[in-house]
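Handout for the seminar on molecular recognition.
Each group receives one record of this type.
Step one: identify the two inputs.
Step two: read the structure output and locate the region that could contact adenosine-5'-triphosphate.
Step three: write two sentences on what you found, then compare them with the reference statements printed after the record.
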Amino acid sequence: MPRVFSGIQPTGEVHLGNYLGAVRRWVHDQHEFDSIYCVVDLHAVTLPQDREVLSSKTRELVALLVAAGLDPEVCTLFVQSHVPEHAQLGWLMECTAAFGELRRMTQFKEKGDRADFTSAGLFTYPALQAADILLYDTDRVPVGDDQRQHLELARDLAERFNSRYGSTFIVPEHAIAPVGARIMDLQEPTRKMSKSVDAPQGTLLVLDPPEVITKKIKRAVTDNDGEVRYDPEAKPGVANLLSILAGITGGDPAELADRYEQYGPLKADTADAVVEALRPLQERFSELSSQPQEVDRIIARGAAKAQALAAPTLAKAMLAMGLLPPT
Ligand code: ATP
Ligand code: LTN
């Protein structure tokens, strides 16, 4: 069975972009692939985090992923820092990556420009991401479109390592969905919906109450020409609403556009679809929030399952490089 791996950072609030670009697909994939999902706390600390917020967000994100439908009996769900092999293989990947190729990563340029303090970890982050993926002999990586460049790098590093030291890693493919891989901000539809940008009215959180979801979608920025058409260049706001509706209902955004003459009904249907899709998640999340021991049990079990897979791959890579095995 092909192996799937993906990750999500325990920072900020999970939004509809994370849900449609990643999480919802993970829930589907877990039944078709051997699936491993990771809450990447080591990636989160590339930017300064409040220690208490980070640990509670980490636990909360695991609960939210379970509430979204990840079944810890079916997939492997774990916290990255609980499996030290990630940091260990991360170092080997930093030594495989070239300074110049890391410097070309656009996410580093964007986040580095916004940060008051640019850590060395923010720069080498994509090497750690490559390690995350390669540790598990991953075939497919379902992510949003913003991760395309990082996945190309992971492939390049796997190929370079294999050609330098002998065949060690599987070269992974990305799995970027045709619809929903790039959900835009509702107020600024030329910018992607993001956790790390403070844009409360433009970001639809998966835990927003129904009335807030409806209000945000009704107030979403569109344009003045009044025609419902899927044209992300000329009509980014309308195209974004169509992508959201299509992502939720499984339709095609251009075909959906033909059903609407006006923006009002499109917004109303989109809001209803989002509210209904998120309702079960929100209900399960509130149940799980009162069972922290259950969440901790899931986290502990996930780490043991993940480590059993990661340890032999790390050992193989270390041996291939000529690092002397301990006696
Ligand atoms: P940040 O904006 O701070 O980078 P993020 O919102 O991208 O954070 P991550 O934890 O880095 O959140 O991403 C988790 C997953 O969600 C990744 O697969 C990413 O590609 C996907 N994703 C993030 N934003 C969007 C979006 N606007 N549309 C579709 N997918 C997205
Ligand atoms: N860099 C990703 C999160 C991430 C990831 C991964 C995704 C870390 N490791 C491995 C897929 C596979 C992000 O910022 N969205």
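Reference statements: The CA atoms of residues 158 and 195 lie 29 Å apart. The first helix runs from residue 16 to 29.
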